[in-house]
Amino acid sequence: MRAPFVTTPDEVVAEMLALAGTGRDDYVIDLGSGDGRIVIAAAQRFGARGLGVDLDEKLVALSRENARRAGVAERTEFRVQDALRTDLSRASVVTIYLLPQLINELQPRVLDDMQPGARVVTHAFYMQSWKPDAVRKVRLAQRHASQGDESTIYLWIVPAKARGEWQARLPAIGDLKLRIHQNFQEIEVEGQADARGFLVEKAELRGTAINWSGTLELAGRRLEQRFSGSVRPDRIEGELTIAGQDPVRLMATRVP
Ligand SMILES: C[S@@+](CC[C@H](N)C(=O)[O-])C[C@H]1O[C@@H](n2cnc3c(N)ncnc32)[C@H](O)[C@@H]1O
Predict the structure, then answer these.
(1) How far, CA to CA in Å, does 6 sit from each of 11, 97, 99?
(2) Ligand 1 pocket mutation, candidates 28, 31, 55, criterion most atoms within 8 A of CB
(3) CA torsion angle for 206, 210, 213, 216 (degrees, to 10)?
(4) What is the pTM of this model?
(5) pLDDT band at 1, cuts 50/70/90?
(6) Which end of the chain is more exposed for a tag (fewer CB within 10 A), N or C?
(7) What is the 8-class DSSP label of residue 196?
(8) Counting runs of H as helices and runs of E as strands, what totals does the chain give?
């Protein structure tokens, strides 16, 4: 499938890269890179490296020339390639200004191939079943043929895979089992500690960072608890703070 060539205005490009928190350590891939402006701006203004892919050979040649003129040819690459066949595993930031159907086809690849914590920013169109982490409106300096006076940009942060059952042992509360339900970045945590009510009221997942707050029962008293840590493929680890006590390290592993 092919989307037409329409450029993202420069002020929107800058906002997209800023919304993704682009910096020197990032590798940015623009899927359907047109004249190369997003990848070039990522290198020139944000110090990143990047790759642009486009089906149109002439636009790829133009992008290489534009990158050379902008002095960022060494930090950028442009290839004639289908966005749907592009390896996204290396990208810490992916930018997209393509038609909705293509964006929706790319969604499973984003979730499966990109690392947790990597960011995706789209211009105008969005992934329909995955709620964005942020939405911004950008006023345009000049009226845009497709977007009018204002463009909307969307950000998603690839969530770690937290779904499933986890187990831990803590001196204060004994054996702890966690069952995590996950829908993209939205999670619910159900806890079960050795005969003690372990209740998580609010849980958040942002990339690999996981936090929750709730209460637990200890020595007949219901106490506030807070957890802050990270989700790795094989473990969740961080600090659990129970009211009135020093934080303790919690390390949970997947229930086989
Ligand atoms: C709307 S333009 C966006 C250009 C640039 N990313 C920007 O924001 O200024 C879409 C570009 O995607 C290219 N394109 C369309 N379908 C594609 C596909 N399946 N794979 C790679 N490029 C594609 C088109 O040739 C066009 O240059």
Answers:
(1) 15, 9, 11
(2) 55
(3) 160
(4) 0.93
(5) low
(6) C
(7) B
(8) 4, 15
Q: What percent of the chain has pLDDT over 70?
A: 97
- Under 8 Å between Cβ of 226 and 200: no
- Mean pLDDT estimate for the chain: 94
Structure tokens at 208: 């690999």
Q: Which residues line ligand 1 (CB under 6 A)?
A: 1-3, 5-8, 30, 32-34, 37-38, 53-56, 59, 82-84, 97-98, 102, 123
Instruction: Assign 145 a pLDDT band (cuts: 50, 70, 90).
Output: confident
**CA atoms in the 13 A half-sphere facing the CB of 204:** 9
Q: Does residue 53 or residue 198 have the better pLDDT?
A: 53
- pLDDT above 90 as % of the chain: 85
Q: What is the Cα–Cα distance from 156 to 174, expressed in whole angstroms?
A: 37
Give the distance (Å) from ligand 1 centre to CA of residue 8. 11
Ramachandran category for residue 157: left, alpha or beta (phi over 0 → left; psi -120 to 50 → alpha): beta
Region class of 21: left (phi > 0), else alpha (psi between -120 and 50), else beta: left
Which pLDDT score, from 0 to 100, does residue 171 have? Answer: 83
Question: Domains of the chain by range and CATH?
Answer: 10-157 (3.40.50.150), 164-254 (2.40.128)
